[in-house]
């Protein structure tokens, strides 16, 4: 199991979300920690149906691709999730995942609490900061510790990989990932 789990919420192969998370992963690994990117590409993550069954089992009752990711998220010290902006909000599957993981964790000893990380958002042009705020709601209500950077964790790009040309965005993400890593290392002492 990796020290830090990074979820890529894009359906595109080699897309900008994955590019941005790879920048974070490299920085985390430079700090001597292990990191694993889990992509939602090709996966099905349905919305929470409020059945409450996660209260009697440490997983979700829905039969899709969420449960297989839960052990890695639960064991990790760090949790980072990246989303592309779709019509001014996070891609639906990303919020489905955040809401369902938050509920499973909450009903089973609040196991997300104390994890270190935060959201990362990419888009062509607009809706990045409101999407970041939307995703932050799950981090804060779950008691996770969100690290800052020199700017918000956003980067601009449209065509796959274009986000790499956003020099300030890449620097922001590197600093964010360095802060996440340093905090995890401090907390271990
Ligand atoms: C359905 C859809 C809606 C989108 N809505 C927005 C938007 O509101 N604002 C924006 O700047 N980009 C928007 N985009 C562009 C993506 O956010 C952008 O291409 C992003 O880099 C995709 O990330 P990915 O390569 O990780 O999939 C949209 C793209 C799609 C497919």
Number of domains: 1
Q: Determine the fraction of residues in helical runs and give it as a percent range.
A: 25-40%
Give the CATH topology.
Answer: Rossmann fold
Percentage of residues in DSSP E strands = 15-25%
CATH class: Alpha Beta
Average pLDDT, all residues:
98
| E-strand count | 7
> How far is it from the N-terminal to the C-terminal residue, by CA?
20 Å
Low-confidence stretches: none
Based on helices, strands and strand pairing, what is the structural class?
A: alpha/beta
Shape: globular
**Oligomeric nature of the chains:** single chain
* Helix and strand run: EHEHEEHEHEEH
Largest sheet entry: 7 strands, mixed
Outline:
The protein is α/β, with parallel strands linked by helices. It is built from five helices and seven strands; from the N terminus they run βαβαββαβαββα.
Structural write-up:
With 189 residues, the protein is of the alpha/beta class. It has one domain: Flavodoxin domain (Rossmann fold, 3-Layer(aba) Sandwich). It has 5 helices and 7 strands. Strands 1, 2, 3, 4, 5, 6 and 7 form a 7-stranded mixed beta sheet that branches. Strand 5 (116-123), helix 4 (128-141) and strand 6 (145-146) form a beta-alpha-beta unit. Helix 1 crosses helix 5 (167-188). It is globular and about 45 Å long. The two termini are 20 Å apart. The mean pLDDT is 98. Bound molecules: flavin mononucleotide (FMN). Residues 10, 12, 15-17, 84-88, 122-127, 157-158, 160 line the site of flavin mononucleotide (FMN).
